[in-house]
Amino acid sequence: TPTRTYKGGVLPSGYTVVGQISYTNVADVSATGVGTAAVTITHTASGAELVLTDAITIRRRAVTVVSDNTATDYTGKPQSSTADGKVQVGGDGMADGETLSATATSAEHTNAGIYDMAFGPIAVSGGQAKADNYTFTETPGKFLINKLKLTVWPKEDAIDYGVYGTGNPYTFPQGIRFSGAVNGEEPAGILTPGTFNFTTTYSFTKPDDVGDYDLYFVDGSGNLIDNTYYSATNYDVELKKGTLTVRASSLNRPDLTVASTR
Description:
mainly beta; 4-stranded mixed sheet; 1 helix; 20 strands; about 45% strand
């Protein structure tokens, strides 16, 4: 029994179809579609003509359908994605004059991550326009929701020199500022752990110690921390230094002459 791959309408070289062809396992398909058909074949070779009745099996074309990966940024709201399907190079490919159309779609997702996409029904147009003439292997892409960058720093503060000293230490405001959050989210609600502690390089020892000083993040034990201390499902966290401004104050230090206030 001769076997060939579906080609969209052309029998192998040396074969011509004579008379009515009736398919045995594919209903209402033309003579060149997929299936096994009883045929009368005329074969001509070396000037002799041989007429015989046989069956020819036309197998499905093997086609791999792929789609690109898609990506978007986290918004705090459900998102989905679609991508057009296309024929991967290799395999049998589409028959001449026929094209496919397919769409890969993801479900809705909110959090950052990598999610599967899936193809819906694959349609074939042109030629016989029958998807049954193909065996499709589906390889859809992935849907990526990217994390956002969340920058957090200690809230700026300003004090007058002389207000704080021995027995009256500076009390940090425990406030923060931030940028990059979306959908009304705030660091205390999205970071783990959700508490913030600070320290500073200011030592309150000399009358001329007015100026700007760094405020640093520390853990509960007072140890300096870096960007890996906090974790968040939908954000990459960057910690920055804050600023503590110590101002000259003649009110609290009558022995200090104030030329300007900053």
